Amino acid sequence: MSRHLFYSAVLLLLVLMMCCNTGGAVRDAEPARGDELSPRSPFDWRDTTDDEKVSSLRVPSLVEVDGGVFAVAEAQWKKGEIGFTGIASELLTLSDEKPKDLDLSKVKVQLLDECRAEGEECTYEKTVESAPQSNTKVHVSRPTTVVNGSDIYMLAGNYSIGGAAASDAVRWGLLLVKGNVSDTKEKGKRIYWNDTDGLPWDIFEEHESLTRLIVGGGSGAKMKDGTFLFPVEGTKKNNKTVSLILYWNGNKNWTLLKGMFADGCSDPSVVEREDEKLIMMTACDDGRRRVYESGDKGESWTEALGTLSRVWSNKKDEEVKLVRSGFITATLYGVETEEREVMLVTLPVYSMNKEEGNGKGELHLWLTDNTHIVDIGPVSGDDDVAASSVLYKSAGSETNKK
């Protein structure tokens, strides 16, 4: 495959990246499965207040809804010395100018309050003036997004911390949130998160070997048959991490697929390559990227040896950073060739010469047709790039989608 094929395509490619210094030890704060309860209380989303400052963003994804492209990420914010997490979203302005960083002081962040319902209203148990806005603080982490028409579905982890009483408990669960884009003169075009439901824990009963389950983060996938796929990570009894697929058919039915990857592989990204053929990329603790294929919707997986798997490497040192890649499919229309479905991957590349390199990862865009691989080149600046997300957007007219 030549570079000419790639550049002959009429497309618009957007890449969202998060730098290594924006990460957080959220995973360490999550309780074990024995303390997990699926949240059943109503939830209420609200915007941050002036004294709630965003300190960093992590676990990015890109969504295209109603003609706009939005960045979605986990936001870590502080109010005084108290740290918390919410969901940030921002409309991206597309231009030929040099890419700009998201302004943390302007990015729109919504926080989740858990409350009790009285009729159709959301009320809170604490009424004293010194009480926080909600009775229960809800951390929302590792958002994973899938778009269906004008709706954005976000699967996220949450753990709730009650009040100061000794009986207050930490509860862990998974949430499915539906969001929509609203365009007003006062606030412009933005995402509002609305319907929020907790997932029942009985969907995990068949996986007795797992002691913990967290959302993979980044982008999920919608198959051609309408099935939603959300990559998740499980912790086995030997404390090794495995990657799995959480399967949702659009109603109340959820299935945690039985197919698992090799121990020590995390940060999964999934795409549908062909009808019902799935490709999953993971970052493994041996410093390699492993790619797996499934022809039965994730019930079983085979490593793609000889093609994509183990081609890409992470940083090889004592502190290997396992980061999620941007991973999508795209149809390219060449000048002299027929249309071809390819996969686009964004991954950090590190200098092999420690004396010349600065130790930072430079994000590169890769293109592959599952047989050949081309390094298109760098798409980031001088920051130490970690997690990334990539979106393929048609640059054609309403009548010509090419």
TrEMBL record:
Keywords on record: Signal
The residues forming the signal peptide are: 1-25
- The keyword Signal appears for this protein: yes
User: Where is region (Disordered) located?
Assistant: 28-49
Q: Does the keyword Cell membrane apply?
A: no
The residues covered by the Sialidase domain are 59-401
Cited Pfam families = BNR_3 (PF13859)
SUPFAM superfamilies named in the record: Sialidases
What does the record give under GO molecular function?
A: exo-alpha-sialidase activity
Which CDD domains does its entry note?
A: Sialidase_non-viral
Q: What is this protein called?
A: Trans-sialidase, putative
Tell me the organism.
Trypanosoma cruzi marinkellei
